[in-house]
Amino acid sequence: MLLLSEICQFTSLPYQLKRSARRRSVALQIRNGALTVLAPVAVAKQQIEHFILQKQHWVERHLKAQQQSVVTPDYLLSALLPLLDEKLQLKVVTDKVSAVSRDGQTLWLQLSARVSTGRRRQKQLDLLKSWYQQQAQQWFTARVFYWQQQMQVQPADIQIKNWQRKWGSCTSKGLLSFNWRLMLAPAWVADYVVVHELAHLTHMDHSPAFWQRVALFYPEFQQAKGWFKQHQHLLDLC
Ligand SMILES: [Zn+2]
Q1: 191 CA distance to ligand 1 centroid (A)?
Q2: What CA–CA distance (Å, rounded) separates 186 from 182?
Q3: Are 66 and 82 in the same domain?
Q4: Using CB atoms within 10 A of its CB, is residue 193 exposed (0-12), middle (13-18) or buried (19+)?
Q5: What's the rounded Cα separation, in Å, for the pair 126 and 115?
Q6: How far is the CA of 198 from the centre of ligand 1 (A)?
Q7: How many A from CA of 197 to the centre of ligand 1?
Q8: Measured in angstroms, how far is the CA atom of residue 177 from the centroid of ligand 1?
Q9: Is 196 found in the same domain as 91?
Q10: Are residues 18 and 83 in the same domain?
Q11: How much is the average pLDDT of 117-125?
Q12: How far is CA 134 from CA 38, 100, 235, in A?
């Protein structure tokens, strides 16, 4: 019985079937959390499903791994918030006014009793977002100050932005901008963005000369770029 229910559950799994005259055998492909079956034109659907069934554990394992890796974690639900290289324990309490305060490794989130139940989650996210923005302002100010001395450049000013999927920018007037969401990344990754933007004060493009300058001050820049490719979905609160 157990086996039967497993079969039913499994065959209800959606997959895309791609038939090709050139194919000699059935093959499975998992990309972006979805299953695709590549099959020769003449193979019966029943045979294909039998093949999937044989590979059930492989498919499930890979689907699960990929689906987990593309979904932004629910930091509120886990009550564990990343802040550069630290993890802060989130504690939510009801109080007279709404506020966020840090005490060691604990982040206290006071929610005003006047916030209605339906609005509580959004209010928590809003409070955390502005707290992270303050952290970003302080951290980037300090790191830009450090790196501008190393690199012998003078930015005009810095500002913190709320972009969805953009991490930093530099204008021709020397205004540097950084996304507050970088506070959810490891410090070495956020530092790479600082060096990248400061290098634009010397080269306003992504020419080989620009990358040479980045490499001079930040030799691990390729690893940092790789980190963004793999993990940028982690950089949001929800
Ligand atoms: Zn750039």
Answers
A1: 14
A2: 8
A3: no
A4: buried
A5: 12
A6: 9
A7: 6
A8: 11
A9: yes
A10: no
A11: 92
A12: 51, 11, 16
Say how many Å lie between the CA of residue 167 and the centre of ligand 1.
10
pTM of the model: 0.71
My answer on whether 196 and 99 are in the same domain is: yes
Ligand 1 centroid distance, CA of 169 (Å): 7
CA–centroid distance, residue 75 to ligand 1 (Å): 29
Summarised one tens digit per residue, pLDDT across range 46-89 is: 888 888 888 887 887 777 777 666 677 788 888 999 999 999 99
Say if residue 106 is in the same domain as residue 206.
yes
Separation of CA 189 and ligand 1 centre (Å): 14
Cα of 72 to ligand 1 centre, how many Å?
Answer: 25
Query: Cα 124 from chain centroid?
Result: 20
Strands (E), the chain: 15-20, 27-31, 34-40, 80-83, 86-95, 99-103, 106-112, 157-161, 168-170, 175-179
| Nearest in space to 107 (alpha carbons), one of 88, 94, 126, 124 | 88
